[in-house]
Design goal:
With 251 residues, the protein is α/β, with parallel strands linked by helices. The protein is 42% helix and 15% strand. It has helices at 19-30, 42-51, 70-81, 104-126, 154-173, 192-200, 203-210, 220-231; strands at 10-14, 34-39, 58-61, 86-89, 136-141, 179-186, 242-245. The chain is globular. The structure holds NADP nicotinamide-adenine-dinucleotide phosphate.
Length: 251
Amino acid sequence: MNPLDLTGKTIMITGASNGIGRSTSVYLSRMGARILAVGRNQARLDETLSALEGTRHRSYALDLSDVEPLPAWMKRVAAEVGPLYGLVHSAGMVLNRPLRVLTYSDYSAILRINLDAAVMLSKGFRQKGVRDESGSAIVYLSSVAAFKPKPALAAYAASKGALISLARTLAHELAADRVRVNCVCPGLVQTNMVADLNEIIPEEQLKALLSEYPLGIGTPEDVAYATAFLLAPAAKWITGTALVIDGGYSA
Ligand SMILES: NC(=O)c1ccc[n+]([C@@H]2O[C@H](COP(=O)([O-])OP(=O)(O)OC[C@H]3O[C@@H](n4cnc5c(N)ncnc54)[C@H](OP(=O)(O)O)[C@@H]3O)[C@@H](O)[C@H]2O)c1
């Protein structure tokens, strides 16, 4: 038996229409998983679907910031496709805004998609009939910003730190239901999110930041491999952890 094999496992991935979520969907499909790809933009979700290996994958275009209906929605999804083995919450937003100009509306928009959606998706996942009762796993995309934040990232870093506390809490609470809950904490990864940073951070500051990465910045695949490991049977004794993947940035 290959402990990294995910053949036949149904895994929901949010943020699957772009960046890390897309690469994770592609890699997990290569490991045999059936992907339920979630994002807002149907055209980008279709691009993800066309890159997946195997068949029976599905996509769902919805705004996860509307958090209250998520548990009922997941129940309907599982009624259609069968129980889910995994949930990966990769949908998220970053905001570079000093506290001086940060509005409550900015802050709550970040918290809503990065954290509140994770809570309500997890609530949906743990319901009977939604998760695979023989064992299942959740992975949240936290960030190294949870441990080593930079100025102007208050809302983002707070949301990512809270995801680690959420995973640690649910690791205890859901162990009896055979659900493992972990985080991955990437450093800078080359995606649209970082392309946007390029526009916001002055070139010199960005250069200085990049020089703090002994192994350079990461690729979405680097994160996909770590997420796949935490989902797979190979990690059956791992729950409540936060796996840093940052090319040595926080070392
Ligand atoms: N890139 C990095 O350097 C880095 C580092 C550490 C952690 N992370 C974390 O990793 C995760 C993925 O980042 P990324 O770089 O892959 O980001 P990305 O390329 O900007 O992709 C973000 C994804 O989130 C989805 N999304 C955003 N808001 C949504 C909403 N309200 N409802 C549904 N879907 C929504 C987007 O969907 P649409 O495209 O359909 O709008 C997209 O698929 C994030 O949680 C991020 O904080 C990233």
